[in-house]
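INPUT
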Amino acid sequence: MSFITKPKVEWSGQRRNPLGLTIRDYEGGMSTLCAGCGHDSVTAALVQAFWELAIKPEQVIKMSGIGCSSKTPAYFLNGAHGFNSVHGRMPSVATGALAAHRDLIAVGISGDGDSLSIGMGQFAHAVRRNINLLYIIENNGVYGLTKGQFSASADPGSKSKAGIENRQQAIDPVAAAISLGGSFAARSFSGDKKQLVPLIKAGLAHPGCAVLDVISPCVTFNDHEGSTKSYAWTREHHESVTVADLVEPAEAIEANYDEGEELPVKLHDDSVIRFRKLEADYDPGDRAHALEYLERHRALGKVVTGLLYRDSDLPEFHQLSGTALQPLRDIEFDCLNPGADALEDLQRKMR
Amino acid sequence: MPGADSTPRCINDFVIKIGTVNGTGSASANALLMKALFRMGIPVTGKNLFPSNIQGLPTWYEIRASREGYNSRTGRVDMMVAMNAQTYEQDLTEVSPGGYLLYDSSWPRDRQLAREDVHLIGIPLADMVNRHFTPARVRILMKNIAYVGALCALMDIDRDVVRALIEETFAAKKKLIEPNMQAITLGHDYARKHFDCPLPVRAETMNGTDDHVLIDGNQAAALGCLYAGATVGAWYPITPSTSLMDAFESLCKRYRTDPDTGEKRYCVIQAEDELAAAGMVVGASWAGARAFTPTSGPGISLMGEFIGFAYYTEIPAVFFDVQRVGPSTGMPTRTQQGDLMAAAYCSHGDTRHPVLLPADPRECFELSVAAFDLADRLQTPVFVLSDLDIGMNDWMIPKMTWDDEYSPDRGKVLSAAELEELDAFHRFDDVDGDGIPYRTLPGSHRKGAYFVRGSGHNRLGGYTEDAVEYQEVVDRLLGKWETARSMVPAPIRTDSGHHTDIGIIAYGSSHGAVVEALERLAERGIHANYLRLRAFPFSDEVQAFLDEHATIFVVEQNRDGQMRSLLKLETHADPDKLVSILHYSGLPIPSDAVSERIRRYIRKEAVA
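OUTPUT
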């Protein structure tokens, strides 16, 4: 595998965002994933979302672990620092980076193997700590790089390419995130960019750990008959409970919806995404209800998508820790070091 | 009564060992005793010999007073305070001939358990305390204070000093001062009335502790982290390193909290495990903070994955390994120097890491600061290899000093302005030819953006599976290692002043035992030069020392002679002249074991 830089072609009349950057400025290296991989669609959605939000690439850190999904931070936002860490450990590195610099905009890209098996512990604790991270799980139910073993998100009864049936229970990262005390849980489908882009934006805007599970089919090892993570299956069985409408900051916010029927999420540029409920009885603010709804639909073989749970009042990691507003790494040394006199004074009590 | 004393009259040169049950509050009584001797100007060291348990098991505290300032253990116990019936028999056997054993005579003592050559001092501590104090919890605490009172009389410890200490301790709870002093008086008066006080083994005011302080290594290391400007600490609790982070956090609360807003200028994260703690440190360092984690051997095993990662991706990070007894869980509350190899070559593949070797708390402070500078300058993980003996025991050290001129050496970090001027930035380009490339911090400038990866990468930072490109990077890392040799703290050489071809090499907490052993050997006409190692990689001085001596004793606290192995691997020394002197029982190395074994070896060689 080699690393290929995408040629950048400029032409007049390219659309530019308020920073004067074109969408090409938000791209990365050429993907080396299989043609048709769901992950590449997620990458495209990320490029779109960051460009539309006009986020400075250098403010962003792209974090990942190991696996097909974890390669993708190389394929978007060339101007952002990327960190391809070790298997299942992306959350801890992101936690440390955010501890050092709380103003960084962090996006973590993980997979079902990376987050639900080897990295289950770190996934759980990133959610629990509510670090300010958009945590995307590109979920295909399979280990691609090692050629098609089941992952922990494979549904019981689903079949591998070799025809073997998975008999173990599946871990649902959305249900897990909600029950772990998470503040934001959403699910989407890599084939549904219209749903995915607003969810990415909402996740980036969320002050805390935003878990976004994206069903992202593996065309090589898990896109066959009998798989429940294939394009065909997901298209047929995914059921959206919310739909997003973007309200530009300049526009007057129209009160089209009945109170309680919508969930506004304010973005970095002060525009607002309104998640409108498609299911009359769905309440994304009610933890017990969300879990019950997910469970009921799982039993029916449905993949529920949309913004499934959000509690924006839950304190984020730095709020919980009481950390200074200024990023720690920027604090002047004089404000960190108590000096010679203090040391002398301190030692008086050691006599 | 015993026959002729074989313990000489020992003024300011004795060992008091106190056997109690853990969880009974004896620690504060022992600290009181130790501090009282210190305030009388007598050099002291206190060692905890404690179980991995919260309450109910035997625990000992050993105080060595030495007018010469020796701080290692010896094989001696001059005064045993046997407060634990469970260990009475064992405690009795440990007393040196002619020594003393103080016991609680409230209950009849088994007459079978006696030694002709030990003076027994029975004091009805429980009876006296029960008559004067209620409830039960207070009685238990006061019994401890009462034996301190008895020792004041028996060993001539200044009661005014003791009172002053008690007043300081309870400055915020003044009503506790009088009961504590009452317990002191109970013990004191009984001893004075019934025994010939003071004993020949006793204290006498001197001036051997001016400009010194009492501190343990973990506290000193925490101070080092504070002074070095570390802002992120991530950790997973593990004995014996826990108190390092506890100390860091309480120092930060005091010195790093904004008085107006209450904002914290630090972030301490209790991680879900050591793997995550290491990841957090690496992440924080990458993002530009000074970050560290304190752990012990089992934690290092778990952190290996990230340590190898940080080595290959060239991210600074500081790892404190407060060593305990291995392998595996081993003995968590016992000391050893068993992680040297694990630290030096931690993680799979070709990896090597700078390892700093403090010998006492003062060096824990100094080398902590050095570790952060080194990690930043070399862009690599740096270990500070302390141990339980240094980390958790009470040491007397010369006061720590700080130079306000110090500013942290963050190494080669390109600022946004510098990046702006550059045509292109390549993360792993050896611009200066010293093996150390330039790095950038996230959040500063688009031009500085690069992709950190533990997978194969080339000089430019790009992914590679190309043989030449891969080798170019790992060969440069070796060049960086050569640069590190001259950056790490130099060894300290002490020559005997005599012509000799005998050398001794030691490091870390074995130092104190070697210092005393050198004296004992010299008294018998054996003169040796001494090189105390303070870091790996080895600098040229180490090779020179090895070359200059025909026999080199390598003194260390592990079974396999790990430093000897490291010297064999990393220098050109003739392995036949490296002789291991090993101690790995889990208790701190005693000086007499070192001197005796060296003497025996030399005698045997002479005969042969």
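end of record. Chain A has one domain: 23-321.
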